[in-house]
Design goal:
Layout: H1 8-19, H2 23-34, H3 39-64, H4 73-80, H5 83-117, H6 123-143, H7 145-174, H8 176-186, H9 198-205, H10 221-251, H11 253-259, H12 263-300, H13 302-307, H14 315-318, H15 329-351, H16 362-385, H17 391-412, H18 418-440
Helix pairs in contact: 1-7, 1-10, 1-12, 2-9, 2-11, 3-9, 3-10, 3-16, 3-17, 4-5, 5-6, 5-12, 5-15, 5-16, 5-18, 6-7, 6-12, 6-15, 7-10, 7-12, 10-11, 16-17, 16-18
Length: 441
């Protein structure tokens, strides 16, 4: 039984709240490193990434408007491709995509919480706080979905406060126009190394697809989900570009690169002093927690969505929705265990610097765009069959989405660890295919 309980505002809040969270705060310095401090090139890469998700969202909205069956992108794969691809993509999202994002963003919340309360910021303490954050948010969303939805709405509004303040202060006091003009003159000296900035920016823009996992629980889903998928990316791009210009010109690109993830705190101290900085940090912590919460809302449903299709081990155990809590409790518990496992893996890779200038979240983000391309091709196929009459929606939009995805794929391939990430993801996908074929027989 599907209960439609999330409004269009909650859906937009979920998309904006997941995408705008930690990425923009702790990936801006990575972007500037790849662009050699060139702010203009950074803006260009932000626009390219946004180009991909705006046209991607427009394309996915065509599929979302045609079904409200549980599963989101798993449903789209099953409906417009086949069950094998649906199972493979579902496993990829359940075992790699969702949990790597959750554990990294929860870890980042640990970084900012130690800053806020003046706690010794060791990796161990950051990870421990991250584990507590994941546990608390799981308890909220498993046993009170309404509280989880309210927190998502509130955190989305709150998280815009520091972004808007820092953006405005940077633009007013940082005098960006001459800086960007100078960047224009020196852009050719950077070479093509700036393309690799797509990796961290892809992280900053990632998560919008998570909203499709609750499509069957959105009020008037066939209308509201497509609207949310169209409105949200435009809001996100505007805020990102203004913030990136503001922080980079206010502190200076070199300062941002040298300070790394702590540059936001430095900007807040300069603007408002120690007390004001604490207030901004409080907003940022809530912002990051909102991202973790949004992805958890989506991930809880994944084993359930696969199990109702008999695509998950012991499906009969995980395909049940609790009558008392209106949430698939056992599905949520297994995803919690997956998240804890990934947090341990993340700790090991950070402790021994196994992923330099990277983290486990980047393992799946670029590969995920291959799955998106399949969805965009499905839209083109619908247009060819005559199911989508509008030529722009049926052909132009998905083709532009494919081009954007290919550009992100190319940028991600510049990461020297890409081949290892790809092999790991392919292994999980192959295991899913083997499992599905075995179950089918």
């Amino acid at each position: 039984m599907n209960q439609q309980k999330y409004s269009i505002f909650t859906t937009i809040a979920m998309i904006v709240g997941i995408v705008i969270g930690s990425g923009i705060f702790f990936k801006s310095d990575n972007v500037l490193v790849y662009t050699s401090g060139n702010i203009l090139l950074g803006i260009i890469v932000f626009v390219i990434a946004a180009f991909s998700i705006i046209f991607g969202s427009l394309s996915i909205s065509e599929l979302a408007s045609r079904t409200d069956v549980a599963g989101g992108i798993v449903t789209y794969c099953e409906t417009y491709w086949n069950k094998s691809i649906a199972c493979a993509y579902g496993w990829f999202q359940t075992f790699i995509y969702y949990p790597t994002i959750i554990c990294v963003v929860a870890w980042v919340s640990g970084i900012y919480i130690t800053m806020l309360f003046g706690i010794e910021s060791t990796l161990e303490i950051q990870v421990l706080i991250g584990l507590i954050v994941i546990t608390v948010l799981y308890l909220i969303n498993l046993f009170s979905y309404k509280v989880g939805g309210y927190f998502q709405n509130a955190s989305t509004i709150i998280k815009l406060v520091p972004l808007i303040i820092i953006a405005a202060a940077g633009i007013i006091f940082g005098n960006p126009i001459p800086v960007i003009q100078n960047n224009f003159n020196t852009a050719t000296q950077v070479g093509l190394s700036w393309v690799a900035a797509i990796g961290p920016i892809a992280f900053s823009f990632d998560g919008w697809i998570v909203s499709t996992s609750i499509c069957h629980e959105i009020k008037n889903s066939k209308r509201n989900l497509p609207l949310a998928l169209i409105i949200s990316p435009i809001i996100i791009l505007t805020i990102y570009v203004l913030y990136f210009i503001g922080i980079s010109t206010f502190l200076g690109a070199d300062k941002v690169m040298n300070m790394g993830d702590t540059h936001v705190n430095e900007a807040a101290i300069r603007l408002f002093g120690e007390m004001g900085a604490r207030l901004i940090l409080t907003f940022i912590v809530i912002s990051v927690l909102g991202t973790v919460n949004g992805v958890i809302i989506g991930m809880i449903r994944m084993p359930y969505s696969l199990s109702i299709r008999n695509m998950f081990p012991k499906s009969s155990k995980y395909n049940v929705v609790s009558e008392k809590y209106s949430v698939p409790i056992k599905s949520g518990i297994i995803t919690y265990i997956i998240n804890i496992t990934w947090m341990i893996i993340h700790y090991i890779t950070q402790k021994f610097n196994m992923l330099p200038n990277s983290d486990v979240s980047e393992i799946s983000i670029v590969i995920n765009y291959i799955g998106f391309i399949l969805m965009y091709i499905a839209v083109i196929n619908l247009a060819r069959k005559g199911d989508i009459k509008n030529k722009v929606k049926g052909y132009v939009v998905p083709v532009l989405a494919i081009i954007g995805s290919l550009f992100i794929l190319y940028g991600g391939m510049q990461n020297p660890l890409f081949i290892y990430y790809a092999l790991f993801c392919i292994t999980v996908i192959v295991l899913a295919l083997v499992y599905y074929e075995k179950t089918k027989k």
